[in-house]
Design brief:
Helices cover about 45% and strands about 15% of the residues. It has a single domain, classed as 2-enoyl-CoA Hydratase, Chain A, domain 1, CATH 3.90.226.10. The chain has a six-stranded mixed sheet, with helices on both faces. Strands 4-6-8-9 form a four-stranded mixed sheet. It is of the alpha/beta class.
Protein backbone atom coordinates (compact mmCIF):
# COMPACT_ATOMS: atom_id res chain seq x y z
CA UNK A 1 0.00 0.00 0.00
CA UNK A 2 1.91 3.01 -1.27
CA UNK A 3 2.13 5.99 -3.58
CA UNK A 4 5.04 5.76 -6.00
CA UNK A 5 6.69 8.66 -7.81
CA UNK A 6 8.72 8.07 -10.98
CA UNK A 7 10.27 10.48 -13.45
CA UNK A 8 10.18 9.07 -17.00
CA UNK A 9 11.49 12.42 -18.31
CA UNK A 10 13.27 15.40 -16.80
CA UNK A 11 10.05 17.44 -16.61
CA UNK A 12 7.44 14.65 -16.46
CA UNK A 13 6.42 12.86 -13.26
CA UNK A 14 4.31 9.70 -12.96
CA UNK A 15 2.36 9.14 -9.73
CA UNK A 16 0.95 5.64 -9.13
CA UNK A 17 -1.60 4.60 -6.51
CA UNK A 18 -0.75 1.07 -5.40
CA UNK A 19 -3.10 -1.04 -3.27
CA UNK A 20 -3.99 -3.66 -5.83
CA UNK A 21 -5.82 -6.16 -3.59
CA UNK A 22 -8.38 -3.40 -2.89
CA UNK A 23 -8.48 -1.92 -6.41
CA UNK A 24 -6.13 0.84 -5.26
CA UNK A 25 -8.40 2.14 -2.51
CA UNK A 26 -6.42 4.57 -0.38
CA UNK A 27 -5.75 4.20 3.32
CA UNK A 28 -5.28 7.28 5.47
CA UNK A 29 -1.52 6.91 5.26
CA UNK A 30 -1.72 6.71 1.47
CA UNK A 31 -3.79 9.90 1.39
CA UNK A 32 -1.17 11.67 3.49
CA UNK A 33 1.52 10.37 1.17
CA UNK A 34 -0.33 11.49 -1.95
CA UNK A 35 -0.81 14.96 -0.49
CA UNK A 36 2.94 15.16 0.19
CA UNK A 37 3.66 14.14 -3.41
CA UNK A 38 1.39 16.91 -4.72
CA UNK A 39 3.32 19.40 -2.58
CA UNK A 40 6.67 18.11 -3.84
CA UNK A 41 5.66 18.31 -7.50
CA UNK A 42 4.09 21.74 -7.13
CA UNK A 43 7.37 23.09 -5.72
CA UNK A 44 9.87 21.46 -8.08
CA UNK A 45 10.63 21.80 -11.82
CA UNK A 46 8.02 19.24 -12.95
CA UNK A 47 6.01 20.54 -15.89
CA UNK A 48 3.38 17.80 -16.26
CA UNK A 49 2.14 14.95 -14.05
CA UNK A 50 0.65 11.58 -15.03
CA UNK A 51 -1.62 9.95 -12.44
CA UNK A 52 -2.46 6.25 -12.68
CA UNK A 53 -3.14 3.13 -10.64
CA UNK A 54 -1.08 -0.02 -10.23
CA UNK A 55 -2.14 -3.16 -12.08
CA UNK A 56 -4.94 -3.48 -14.60
CA UNK A 57 -8.10 -3.67 -12.47
CA UNK A 58 -8.40 -0.41 -10.57
CA UNK A 59 -7.39 3.21 -10.97
CA UNK A 60 -8.71 4.05 -7.51
CA UNK A 61 -11.98 3.22 -5.73
CA UNK A 62 -11.69 5.91 -3.05
CA UNK A 63 -11.11 5.36 0.65
CA UNK A 64 -10.27 1.94 2.03
CA UNK A 65 -13.39 1.33 4.14
CA UNK A 66 -11.77 -1.59 5.92
CA UNK A 67 -9.67 0.88 7.92
CA UNK A 68 -10.35 3.60 10.50
CA UNK A 69 -13.56 5.50 9.69
CA UNK A 70 -13.45 8.02 12.53
CA UNK A 71 -13.84 11.62 11.39
CA UNK A 72 -11.91 14.70 12.45
CA UNK A 73 -11.01 18.12 11.14
CA UNK A 74 -7.48 16.85 10.54
CA UNK A 75 -8.79 13.93 8.51
CA UNK A 76 -10.97 16.22 6.40
CA UNK A 77 -7.87 18.28 5.61
CA UNK A 78 -5.92 15.14 4.63
CA UNK A 79 -8.73 13.87 2.37
CA UNK A 80 -9.24 17.26 0.74
CA UNK A 81 -5.56 17.72 -0.01
CA UNK A 82 -5.03 14.20 -1.35
CA UNK A 83 -7.94 14.68 -3.76
CA UNK A 84 -6.91 18.29 -4.56
CA UNK A 85 -10.50 19.10 -3.70
CA UNK A 86 -10.07 22.74 -2.72
CA UNK A 87 -6.48 23.26 -3.84
CA UNK A 88 -5.32 25.80 -6.37
CA UNK A 89 -2.72 23.84 -8.32
CA UNK A 90 -0.45 25.02 -11.14
CA UNK A 91 0.89 21.77 -12.63
CA UNK A 92 -1.19 20.02 -15.35
CA UNK A 93 -2.29 16.49 -14.44
CA UNK A 94 -3.09 13.75 -16.96
CA UNK A 95 -5.09 10.78 -15.68
CA UNK A 96 -4.33 7.35 -17.15
CA UNK A 97 -7.32 5.38 -15.85
CA UNK A 98 -6.23 1.74 -15.92
CA UNK A 99 -9.36 0.25 -14.33
CA UNK A 100 -12.30 1.04 -12.06
CA UNK A 101 -12.53 4.70 -11.09
CA UNK A 102 -15.15 4.83 -8.37
CA UNK A 103 -16.14 6.97 -5.39
CA UNK A 104 -13.21 9.04 -4.17
CA UNK A 105 -11.23 7.79 -7.16
CA UNK A 106 -13.66 9.56 -9.46
CA UNK A 107 -13.54 12.65 -7.26
CA UNK A 108 -9.75 12.61 -7.61
CA UNK A 109 -10.20 12.28 -11.38
CA UNK A 110 -12.32 15.45 -11.36
CA UNK A 111 -9.26 17.37 -10.12
CA UNK A 112 -7.21 16.33 -13.16
CA UNK A 113 -7.09 18.03 -16.53
CA UNK A 114 -6.80 15.52 -19.39
CA UNK A 115 -8.06 11.94 -19.08
CA UNK A 116 -7.70 8.65 -20.89
CA UNK A 117 -8.89 5.19 -19.87
CA UNK A 118 -8.81 1.54 -20.85
CA UNK A 119 -11.94 0.07 -22.41
CA UNK A 120 -12.69 -2.03 -19.33
CA UNK A 121 -12.77 0.95 -16.94
CA UNK A 122 -15.93 1.76 -15.02
CA UNK A 123 -16.91 5.03 -13.39
CA UNK A 124 -19.38 5.98 -10.68
CA UNK A 125 -20.19 7.46 -7.31
CA UNK A 126 -21.88 4.66 -5.35
CA UNK A 127 -21.63 6.43 -1.98
CA UNK A 128 -25.39 6.90 -1.56
CA UNK A 129 -25.91 3.14 -1.92
CA UNK A 130 -24.01 2.78 1.38
CA UNK A 131 -25.41 5.98 2.93
CA UNK A 132 -22.08 7.77 2.63
CA UNK A 133 -21.86 11.43 1.65
CA UNK A 134 -19.44 12.10 -1.27
CA UNK A 135 -17.06 14.40 0.60
CA UNK A 136 -14.48 14.72 -2.20
CA UNK A 137 -16.03 17.52 -4.22
CA UNK A 138 -18.26 15.60 -6.63
CA UNK A 139 -21.43 17.49 -5.64
CA UNK A 140 -19.82 20.67 -6.99
CA UNK A 141 -17.27 19.67 -9.62
CA UNK A 142 -19.39 17.03 -11.34
CA UNK A 143 -22.24 19.44 -12.04
CA UNK A 144 -19.80 21.96 -13.53
CA UNK A 145 -17.93 19.42 -15.63
CA UNK A 146 -20.66 17.25 -17.15
CA UNK A 147 -23.88 19.20 -16.58
CA UNK A 148 -26.69 19.10 -14.05
CA UNK A 149 -28.86 16.22 -15.22
CA UNK A 150 -25.99 13.83 -15.91
CA UNK A 151 -24.27 14.67 -12.65
CA UNK A 152 -27.45 14.20 -10.64
CA UNK A 153 -28.17 10.90 -12.36
CA UNK A 154 -24.81 9.50 -11.24
CA UNK A 155 -24.83 11.14 -7.80
CA UNK A 156 -28.35 10.04 -6.84
CA UNK A 157 -28.51 6.55 -8.35
CA UNK A 158 -24.99 5.46 -7.43
CA UNK A 159 -24.90 3.44 -10.66
CA UNK A 160 -21.69 2.73 -12.60
CA UNK A 161 -21.12 3.60 -16.25
CA UNK A 162 -18.70 2.11 -18.77
CA UNK A 163 -15.84 3.75 -20.65
CA UNK A 164 -17.91 4.54 -23.74
CA UNK A 165 -20.51 6.39 -21.68
CA UNK A 166 -17.79 8.27 -19.81
CA UNK A 167 -16.58 9.73 -23.11
CA UNK A 168 -20.13 10.66 -24.10
CA UNK A 169 -20.49 12.55 -20.80
CA UNK A 170 -17.11 14.32 -21.15
CA UNK A 171 -15.60 12.60 -18.13
CA UNK A 172 -12.90 11.00 -20.32
CA UNK A 173 -11.11 12.27 -23.44
CA UNK A 174 -10.07 8.98 -25.08
CA UNK A 175 -10.40 5.20 -24.68
CA UNK A 176 -7.59 2.69 -25.30
CA UNK A 177 -7.77 -1.07 -25.72
CA UNK A 178 -4.74 -1.83 -23.58
CA UNK A 179 -2.93 -0.45 -20.55
CA UNK A 180 0.27 -0.13 -22.60
CA UNK A 181 -1.47 2.02 -25.23
CA UNK A 182 -2.92 4.18 -22.46
CA UNK A 183 0.48 4.87 -20.90
CA UNK A 184 2.06 5.59 -24.31
CA UNK A 185 -0.70 8.14 -24.94
CA UNK A 186 -0.30 9.72 -21.51
CA UNK A 187 3.47 10.05 -21.91
CA UNK A 188 3.11 11.56 -25.38
CA UNK A 189 0.57 14.07 -24.11
CA UNK A 190 2.70 14.93 -21.07
CA UNK A 191 5.80 15.44 -23.20
CA UNK A 192 3.86 17.72 -25.54
CA UNK A 193 2.77 19.87 -22.61
CA UNK A 194 6.27 19.83 -21.09
CA UNK A 195 7.74 21.25 -24.33
CA UNK A 196 5.51 24.30 -24.07
CA UNK A 197 6.44 27.43 -22.15
CA UNK A 198 6.13 26.36 -18.48
CA UNK A 199 5.24 29.84 -17.24
CA UNK A 200 2.39 30.13 -19.72
CA UNK A 201 1.14 26.58 -19.12
CA UNK A 202 1.16 27.00 -15.36
CA UNK A 203 -0.52 30.41 -15.57
CA UNK A 204 -3.36 28.89 -17.62
CA UNK A 205 -3.73 25.98 -15.20
CA UNK A 206 -3.54 28.31 -12.18
CA UNK A 207 -6.32 30.55 -13.45
CA UNK A 208 -8.65 27.61 -14.10
CA UNK A 209 -7.71 25.91 -10.84
CA UNK A 210 -8.15 29.11 -8.80
CA UNK A 211 -11.65 29.59 -10.17
CA UNK A 212 -12.70 26.04 -9.30
CA UNK A 213 -11.00 26.22 -5.91
CA UNK A 214 -12.78 29.43 -4.93
CA UNK A 215 -16.16 27.89 -5.71
CA UNK A 216 -15.45 24.67 -3.81
CA UNK A 217 -14.05 26.53 -0.79
CA UNK A 218 -17.13 28.77 -0.65
CA UNK A 219 -19.31 25.66 -0.12
CA UNK A 220 -16.96 23.72 2.18
CA UNK A 221 -18.65 24.55 5.49
CA UNK A 222 -22.00 23.32 4.21
CA UNK A 223 -20.34 20.28 2.66
CA UNK A 224 -18.79 19.25 5.97
CA UNK A 225 -22.03 19.88 7.91
CA UNK A 226 -24.13 17.81 5.51
CA UNK A 227 -21.57 15.04 5.49
CA UNK A 228 -21.40 14.89 9.28
CA UNK A 229 -25.18 14.73 9.53
CA UNK A 230 -25.13 11.70 7.26
CA UNK A 231 -22.25 10.15 9.19
CA UNK A 232 -24.15 10.53 12.49
CA UNK A 233 -27.21 8.69 11.17
CA UNK A 234 -28.30 5.08 11.63
CA UNK A 235 -28.37 4.83 7.84
CA UNK A 236 -24.61 5.37 7.76
CA UNK A 237 -24.01 2.61 10.31
CA UNK A 238 -26.19 0.22 8.34
CA UNK A 239 -24.65 1.19 4.99
CA UNK A 240 -21.06 0.70 6.13
CA UNK A 241 -21.96 -2.59 7.87
CA UNK A 242 -23.65 -3.85 4.71
CA UNK A 243 -20.64 -2.85 2.61
CA UNK A 244 -18.20 -4.67 4.88
CA UNK A 245 -20.48 -7.71 5.12
CA UNK A 246 -21.01 -7.73 1.32
CA UNK A 247 -24.81 -7.61 1.56
CA UNK A 248 -27.61 -5.26 0.56
CA UNK A 249 -28.34 -2.56 3.16
CA UNK A 250 -31.73 -2.39 4.83
CA UNK A 251 -32.66 1.28 5.30
Amino acid sequence: MKITLERPDKYVAMVTIDNQPRLNAMTRDMMRELGAVWDELEADTTRCIILTGAGERGFCVGADLSGDLTASEEMATIVNHSLLKCDSYSKPIISAVNGDCIGGGLELLLSTDIRGCVASARFGLPEVKWSVYPFGGATLKFVEQIGYIHAMDLLLTGELIDAKRSVELDIINEIFESHDELIVWALKKARTIARNGPKAVQAVKKQVSDTISAHVQSRELLEQRLGEEVRASDDFKEGVAAFLEKRKPNY
